[in-house]
User: Which sequence fits this backbone?
């Protein structure tokens, strides 16, 4: 599973306890959902299981799948968000995980 950390927001810190929360959002593009048989009135997908970018991030090729040749928008979007709390200098503790 490829993970992309799109957002890492550090919320305002409580000055008395020195606690902070970090929200991390991971985005993954799964199987291709493009209907390959739409022109003939059917439904068939190509079987591509995961988006793999054809080029480097920030280039137009990054939006094209190397496996099936489809645009990234045809691939199923999966977003996972987790909230991590940092308690002073004692490290981090995972508070909540959503799928």
Assistant:
């Amino acid at each position: 599973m490829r993970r992309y950390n799109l957002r890492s927001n550090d919320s305002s810190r409580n000055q008395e306890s020195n606690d902070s929360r970090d929200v991390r959002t991971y985005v993954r593009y799964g199987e291709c959902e493009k209907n390959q048989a739409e022109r003939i009135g059917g439904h068939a997908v190509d079987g591509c299981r995961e988006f793999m970018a054809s080029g480097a991030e920030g280039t137009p090729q990054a939006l094209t799948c190397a496996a099936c040749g489809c645009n990234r928008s045809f691939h199923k979007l999966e977003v996972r968000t987790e909230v991590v709390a940092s308690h002073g200098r004692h490290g981090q503790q995972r508070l909540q995980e959503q799928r």
In short: The beta strands are 5-10, 19-32, 75-87, 92-98. The two ends are 14 Å apart (CA to CA).
